[in-house]
Design a protein that fits this description.
The chain has about 250 residues and is mostly helical. It contains twelve helices and three strands, in the order H-H-H-H-H-E-E-E-H-H-H-H-H-H-H. The longest helix is centred in the N-terminal third of the chain and has 19 residues.
Length: about 250
């Protein structure tokens, strides 16, 4: 964005020079070509999100989260949203706009409608809530139980950059989106143990809403695998808690 602004500013300066007759070459056209080339190159870049994938890194990050939660100036809703993102492995956008009406408390499920997902064709996303995620919701119910959104603030919903301050506070070179890669990496590292429990990679990918097959197969797999997803998400919560005990 800064490069685009600077090129636009230079174009205006050179346009004034051209009108005065001071400019001998058509540098404005060259700058516009440069701007076009930059935007196309930048658009085609693959965006990678830094993630915490090693066990010691995860432990360190959890210790930072625990300390941050107990800091007197920490916004409770923000740190709860960060924890909830980690515990559910969902996109930050879905966390921000999560509604109380999306939660099935009877079955401990968070059901995100297909039209709110990045890949709508994969249908609704059904995320089992482990006991730690449910505790987060209990805390948020006290704060925001009368509001539409679970992680609401005075402006409606929390900012899309809700976790930036936390990562900067501890000089962590990661992003909140990287928590999805953390979840996948934990599964990969512990796959032998989990496969013995009947939890295949496909089950983990379903949590991330990565579902293969045609529409009928996807619907069948979502329904069939719910018990295994419940098992996986509770295991995941227990694993994180074993690295650094949650303070809630």
């Amino acid at each position: 964005e800064t490069i685009n602004k600077n090129i636009s500013l230079l174009c205006r300066i050179f346009e004034i020079s051209r009108q005065r007759g001071d400019l001998k070459t058509d540098i404005i056209l060259q700058l516009k070509d440069l701007k076009k080339f930059y935007n196309e190159a930048n658009h085609n870049k693959v965006k990678h999100f830094k993630a915490i994938v090693e066990e010691q890194e995860i432990r360190n990050m959890l210790e930072c989260m625990k300390e941050y939660k107990n800091h007197p100036r920490t916004n409770t809703t923000i740190i709860n949203a960060i924890y909830f993102t980690l515990l559910t492995a969902q996109r930050s956008k879905n966390i921000r706009f999560a509604k109380w009406s999306d939660i099935d408390f009877e079955n401990n499920l968070w059901i995100i409608k297909a039209d709110e997902m990045k890949v709508r064709s994969n249908g609704d996303n059904i995320i089992p809530l482990n006991k730690y995620a449910l505790k987060i919701l209990d805390m948020q119910r006290i704060l925001n139980g009368d509001k539409k959104h679970i992680f609401a603030n005075n402006n409606g919903t929390i900012s899309e950059n809700f976790a930036v301050r936390f990562f900067k506070f501890y000089n962590l070179e990661h992003t909140i989106h990287g928590y999805r890669s953390t979840f996948r990496s934990v599964y990969t590292n512990k796959s032998n143990e989990l496969i013995q429990q009947g939890i295949s990679k496909d089950i983990a990918e379903m949590i991330l809403h990565h579902i293969s097959g045609n529409e009928i197969e996807r619907a069948y797999n979502r329904a069939k695998a719910i018990d295994l997803r419940v098992k996986l998400m509770q295991w995941y919560g227990n694993y994180l808690n074993s690295l650094c005990e949650f303070c809630f």
